[in-house]
Amino acid sequence: MRINDERLHRHFEALSRIGATDQQGIDRPALSAVDIQARTWLQQRIETAGLEYRMDAAGNQSALLTGRQPDGPRLLLGSHLDSVPNGGRFDGALGVLAAVEVLHTLSENNYAGDIVLEAVNFTDEEGSHVGLLGSRAMLGQLAAEDLANPFLGRRAFEAGLQRLGLNPDDLFAARRSPSQLAAYLEVHIEQGPVLAEAGDAIGIVTGIVGIRRQTFTFQGMANHAGTTPMDRRRDAGRAAATFAVSAWQTVAQAYRDCVINIGDMRYHPGSFNVVPAAVAVDLEMRAADETRLKALHQQLLAVAQAQASACDSTLACGPHEHLGPVAMDEGLQALLTQAAQELGLRYRKMASGAGHDAQSFATVCPAAMIFVPSAGGVSHCPQEFSEWQDCLNGVELLLQAVIAFSAHQ
Ligand code: HGY
Ligand code: MN
Ligand code: MN
């Protein structure tokens, strides 16, 4: 049994037009009008395939394929249709299309396994509002405080949910009983250079990094930019800038096993001629080892505090988002390894430096991921690209893995 290459490609091209940017990227932030357009497209795609369509209280969209046992345990396949600002066409979209295509192919071949198959588009994987919102809601990993300070503010979050007819108080109702979940599998582009540089076709993911995010706000005092002597300024901009440099040095010198990113700095009031009164710095830290990640976080808090004091400013820390590192299931890794060998695909085991919905599943049920090469190793930008044959290999491997999994239940 093979997937329908031409159909999958046609759907990939159609989806890539929704939220397309001038530079051939994708701008499809979760819960935006364009995300709703992509969701409507997906619903049609699912219904046209003759699969059952559902959406839960967290906006997760599903296609269902039942075999012999309508109440049997479920194997979930999925990823996300939302994107980062001006991101790429493959991130998330490939995994959702792969999942639906696998169900469509199995349905055309009169699937009669004991496992119920479900293909899912998870809400807000990228964390435009709340990181991994949909998968965490589904797995009961969301607390009320996670929803209190969405990244773009509570009003934007509620307005986004309303576009889908959803209410923030109902998100918790998306929770599934873990006993229903047999396993989770996801296809995704690697988003880094490892596979492409090694000439390998497939990555079998061993684990996913831990991710911490926090906004540090340096607070100084607004003043006249022309008349205030340099040594009398309480310049929050200087505190933020020196913090950024020191943070990079800290990682380079003592935390080579970690990465950080300062993805945004917002100046207030933000004017040529006003000494910045406050600067909000969005800091992200990642590492495979939780102890190291925690140590880095504490170290950077101390660095921020020191730079604030040195610039006669103060530091206020926002609530932090924290996703722990997880390991992928060994049994599923073995199953993927065997399926890759049978398809004659050169594979390697590798860790993921990117976050994925599989992360939410890993602590609840067996979860595993298939990576395909990213040309040039770039992602989260319009240049993100994977050769179609490489994408196809990943989807074929997913199909074979699903067949093998359902045969062994
Ligand atoms: O931020 C990430 O790692 C992602 O691509 N969701
Ligand atoms: Mn991404
Ligand atoms: Mn992704």
Describe the structure.
With 409 residues, the protein is of the alpha+beta class. Helix content is 36%, strand content 23%. It has twelve helices and 16 strands. The protein has helices at residues 5-16, 33-48, 93-108, 133-138, 144-148, 154-163, 194-198, 236-254, 290-310, 330-343, 358-362, 388-407, and strands at residues 52-55, 61-65, 74-79, 116-121, 181-189, 202-208, 210-219, 223-224, 258-268, 274-275, 278-287, 314-317, 321-323, 326-327, 347-352, 367-372. The strands form three sheets. Strands 1, 2, 3, 4, 5, 6, 14, 15 and 16 form a nine-stranded mixed sheet that branches. Helix 3 links the parallel strand 3 (74-79) and strand 4. Helix 1 packs antiparallel against helix 3 (93-108), helix 8 runs antiparallel to helix 9 and helix 10 (330-343) crosses helix 12 (388-407). The chain is elongated. The two termini are 19 Å apart. The model has no long low-confidence stretch (mean pLDDT 97). The structure holds (2S)-amino(hydroxy)ethanoic acid and manganese (II) ion (2 copies).
